[in-house]
């Protein structure tokens, strides 16, 4: 007997409706009139079934630290968190992280990657809390923890290096940072690649999150990725500077990004709030060249970044909401473009995070969301309810008002 049978679901790029049978956490059959009984049944009634949302870039250590309003600039937000870091204890980190993860699951996100700061002020408290949350939410939200470090010094200092080695020994999933914030950007990138290679973990870096027309760190990360044989295991985030450079520089950089097999994550909601604040006349919006990157065949995802902290005082851990913001700022509004946006928050984000067996197909893990819409466009524009969220083949969340959907 199957564990769950979803009847009459509409898929993102399919015609008509299908039945989906789930057993032991995986999709075992998909098609018309799938036979067999199941312990639980969901009548989708033609609604849209998507693979669950993947928020591939958040900061759980910062989330909900500034619920009454944000800072006035990126620099001020970084300072704000550094100042708070000394007093943040593990219980506070756990409580805020838990709140965001619950909210995210309610909104259909079942995989998330969080960057967690490792610094002198915060020590490893953020990492320890995130690793505990990874355990606590196992089977609900698959959490990947990236140890993130950066600083104004020309290269990482020995005490910080010790903390990072300890974070890796504790079991973080990867290494990250914001090397463009240091005058010794290349030394920081070199060190991150060296350490990641030593522990065989993926890399996920904030790149050129700046108003300046600069692709210095993105170009360097791309060349370093090839040199280290790390193609397919590196993500570059933000890439705001790429939006501000001339066409020739952009074209050259995008070709390098493609060759290095980087995934790019754009964080429109956060960068719209933070960037271009001193521009007069031509106001930059701080969002990278998504269309050009996609046209070159680069895997591009969107994610939430900051949720109600000094970096961005908005956000509901809701990837469908982030999708609407992404669609509006990128002017992606045709049905085909909105389907592409939906894929950026699901398939593309899953690829950036290296998730295996992802999708709505036989053999994929049954992490699914049933949306109260029939098309991606309808779901994004209508900001519709997530009727139910299925994690590992079980109904994890029900938001349906009609009780006849789940039988
Ligand atoms: Zn970030």
UniProtKB/TrEMBL annotation:
<dbReference type="InterPro" id="IPR011059">
    <property type="entry name" value="Metal-dep_hydrolase_composite"/>
</dbReference>
<dbReference type="GO" id="GO:0019239">
    <property type="term" value="F:deaminase activity"/>
</dbReference>
<dbReference type="InterPro" id="IPR052349">
    <property type="entry name" value="Metallo-hydrolase_Enzymes"/>
</dbReference>
<feature type="domain" description="Amidohydrolase 3">
    <location>
        <begin position="148"/>
        <end position="396"/>
    </location>
</feature>
<protein>
    <submittedName>
        <fullName>N-isopropylammelide isopropyl amidohydrolase</fullName>
        <ecNumber>3.5.4.42</ecNumber>
    </submittedName>
</protein>
<dbReference type="InterPro" id="IPR013108">
    <property type="entry name" value="Amidohydro_3"/>
</dbReference>
<dbReference type="GO" id="GO:0016814">
    <property type="term" value="F:hydrolase activity, acting on carbon-nitrogen (but not peptide) bonds, in cyclic amidines"/>
</dbReference>
<keyword id="KW-0378">Hydrolase</keyword>
<keyword id="KW-0479">Metal-binding</keyword>
<dbReference type="GO" id="GO:0046872">
    <property type="term" value="F:metal ion binding"/>
</dbReference>
<dbReference type="InterPro" id="IPR032466">
    <property type="entry name" value="Metal_Hydrolase"/>
</dbReference>
<dbReference type="GO" id="GO:0018764">
    <property type="term" value="F:N-isopropylammelide isopropylaminohydrolase activity"/>
</dbReference>
<feature type="domain" description="Amidohydrolase 3">
    <location>
        <begin position="40"/>
        <end position="96"/>
    </location>
</feature>
<dbReference type="Pfam" id="PF07969">
    <property type="entry name" value="Amidohydro_3"/>
</dbReference>
